[in-house]
Amino acid sequence: MTSPDLPTELKAALDSKLRGFSRSDAAGRASVISQAYRGGGGSGTIRTEADALAYALARMPATYAAVTASLNALAEIRPDFAPKRLLDVGAGPGTATWAAAETFSSLANFTLLDANDALRTLAQNLVRGSMRLHDIAYERGEARAALAKTDAADLVIASYMIGEIGDAEQRAIAELMWAKTDDTLLVVEPGTPTGYARIIALRAHLIALGAHVAAPCPHDGKCPLQPPDWCHFSQRLQRSRAHMQVKGAEVPFEDERFSYVALTRVPVVQRPSRLLAQPIVNKVEITAKLCTPEGLAFTKVPRRAKADYARARRWRWGDPVMEES
Ligand SMILES: C[S@@+](CC[C@H](N)C(=O)[O-])C[C@H]1O[C@@H](n2cnc3c(N)ncnc32)[C@H](O)[C@@H]1O
């Protein structure tokens, strides 16, 4: 499993950019940017190098953790998946590229694209000293036009990106991303009802075009969850001192809620059920909420079934659960 915390090389690159950068200035900029996101706006408020750095400081650790958790789930289901080429759509500061490079040592070719100049410049500065990533290709431009010109890749990722484009455009971009996917497309969004709704719409649209779900769902059918419930997961990450200062946070960790879907061209052979919440443990039994190939299930594992109970105690929200467990 790849760690959800930023790799040492990336932390060092960020730290060196941060030298001499006022934390209160960064906090002010990060707050303006996050208010814009909360108000349904996009990354348009990120205009300067200082804005991009403030965004990276405040949000990159969490989006990195969410992408890594999604990639870990994919790698767990497909241990033989060894992508060579990556395409990171709406790459921003390069978050998903760093996460994919950490997860898949097979990756040798990295193409990123984004319309935001400040984030692109920051991404290029961050990879400059990296052995693995110093040679990335970062295309500048709107996703639709840039995707049309880009080569296909084994792994295509859009992380925290599709929420910045309108509904009709989301469908067009989803189709284009799928057309550029030789093997697997991963889309990650905030773990809110609206983030989930975007994932579920893209999922249905691409299944109709022949895609199969590798994770998190153990089926290609309709999502069994009914509103107000929604499918999302949670990843804990450590906060650095600078991260805490910029967020005005008091605890040295945060839990990032995210929704995701990994879609493949060829169906995955075995798709295990998945835990949709942290199981509830009491003295008598463990109750687990599972998405199964047959739909939603609340499984109870009694304490007296010692081996099963011991196994179920290790279950964590988001884990796959094999049939025999
Ligand atoms: C919230 S940021 C996420 C960045 C990065 N993927 C991450 O996970 O940290 C969204 C990114 O999508 C890019 N973006 C949004 N709409 C776009 C479009 N139509 N074409 C290209 N890039 C776009 C923004 O410029 C921004 O860099």
What is the secondary structure topology, with strand pairs?
Blueprint: H1 8-18, H2 23-38, H3 49-77, E1 85-89, H4 95-103, E2 109-114, H5 117-127, E3 137-140, H6 143-149, E4 153-159, H7 167-179, E5 181-190, H8 193-208, E6 212-215, E7 233-238, H9 241-247, E8 253-264, E9 273-275, E10 280-281, E11 285-292, E12 295-302, H10 306-313, E13 320-321
Parallel strand pairs: 1-2, 1-4, 2-3, 4-5
Antiparallel strand pairs: 5-8, 6-8, 7-8, 9-11, 9-13, 10-11, 11-12
The structure holds S-adenosylmethionine (SAM).
GO molecular function, one term: iron-sulfur cluster binding
GO cellular component, one term: small ribosomal subunit
Keywords: Iron, Iron-sulfur, Metal-binding, Methyltransferase, Transferase, Transit peptide
In short:
This protein has ten helices and 13 strands.
Describe this structure in words.
The protein has 325 residues and is an alpha/beta fold. It folds into two domains: 257 residues, Rossmann fold (3-Layer(aba) Sandwich), CATH 3.40.50.150; 49 residues. The chain is 39% helix and 24% strand. Strands 1, 2, 3, 4, 5, 6, 7 and 8 form an eight-stranded mixed β-sheet that branches. Helix 5 links the parallel strand 2 and strand 3. The protein is globular. It starts with 7 loop residues before the first helix and ends with a strand. 44% of the residues are buried. The mean pLDDT is 94. Bound molecules: S-adenosylmethionine (SAM). S-adenosylmethionine binds next to helix 3 and helix 4.
Keywords:
single chain, 325 residues, alpha/beta, Rossmann fold, 2 domains, 8-stranded mixed sheet, 5-stranded antiparallel sheet, 10 helices, 13 strands, 39% helix, binds S-adenosylmethionine
